[in-house]
Amino acid sequence: xxAETFLPQxxxxxxxxxxxxxRLRARGHELLIIAPGPxxxxxxxxxxxxxxxxxxxxxxxxxxxxxxxxIERAMAEFKPDLVHVASPFIIGAYxxxxxxxxxLPTVAIFQTDIAGFARQYPWFAAADRGxxxxxxxxxxRADRTLAPSTASVEALVQGGVPRVHHWGRGVNLDLFDPxxxxxxxxxxxxxxxxxxxxxxxxxxAEKKVRRLAELSELDCRVVxxxxxxxxxxLEHALPKATFLGMRRxxxxxxxxxxxxxFVHTGEHETFCQTIQEAQASGVATVGPAAGGPxxxxxxxxxxxxxxxxxxxxxxxxxxxxxxxxxxRARMAAxxxxxxxxxxxxxxxxxxxDRHYAQVLHETAAVRRVA
Length: 370
What we know:
Blueprint: E1 2-3, H1 12-26, E2 32-36, E3 42-43, E4 46-51, E5 53-56, E6 59-65, H2 69-78, E7 83-86, H3 91-102, E8 106-109, H4 114-118, H5 128-140, E9 144-147, H6 150-158, E10 164-166, H7 183-189, E11 196-200, E12 221-225, H8 231-237, E13 242-245, H9 249-258, E14 261-263, H10 273-280, E15 284-288, H11 293-296, E16 303-306, H12 313-323, H13 325-338, H14 344-369
Parallel strand pairs: 1-7, 2-4, 7-8, 8-9, 9-10, 11-12, 11-14, 12-13, 14-15, 15-16
Antiparallel strand pairs: 3-4, 5-6
């Protein structure tokens, strides 16, 4: 596995890579992980080779891997049956080239809308077309690209990327569960009993967390969980909100379950894992009518969608759920029911038994013909 980011970083790409690694090892597969440093050189009994990296403005805690000859050497020595490339951009692109030179089958996981994110930062905004050319060139080297949502599959196909297939994401149902609702925590956050609306995620420009300012007119408490470069400015822009910082594990699960409504504010999500985690926690969800959330929220069934370009749309969606507790409970129950089959073990088994197997079969067939 060549991962664009891995532990100790906490983000969607690293978390997905970790769940894949866990299930592969549980099924008895041998695994080698190559990722940017710094970080531990092992994950359980799996060796992690750390490639050279640098840090970007606005994302200084996020190391970006550099092309490194050690990647190809490690692949050649390990002699894998297949190379899994997690969200390839720089180190992943190099990994795909190295795999091709070594004649190794490859599966690339598309997970980050880099072009969409870049548009939120002045120093990257003009790079949109160049980024898409790079994405197309990089993923064209893979035997199969897997995208997590209908919207991301369509975007890749329209962008000229070949051999694109859909592969979703799992959710940890042992961790995220309505039973973790903590009434003492709710009284601490909302002593007057007002409903609690929460956001969980990175505090950065592309997440559009400032949209939560619309909720200041509603009779609710706003809780923001996460950290990032925009935290200080957001605390200034949202003085009534409660900022809880980065939370993980059982602590995070308890916060999710303690919400009355979960809101995701950004429209550049290829999937949006926090929506699934909120649904697994028995919470009604609100998300943008764009990108990955379109697959996760069926408007009026298990949550509500808002129009990102329409001022007040987010506020109206949240208000609807707050004003109609019976509908909110119905949508929360529907969301919980819909995620019950999306365990990480089932999702990774699908990755191995369908996508890995088909790529290995196709590669073997080509070699027999050659």
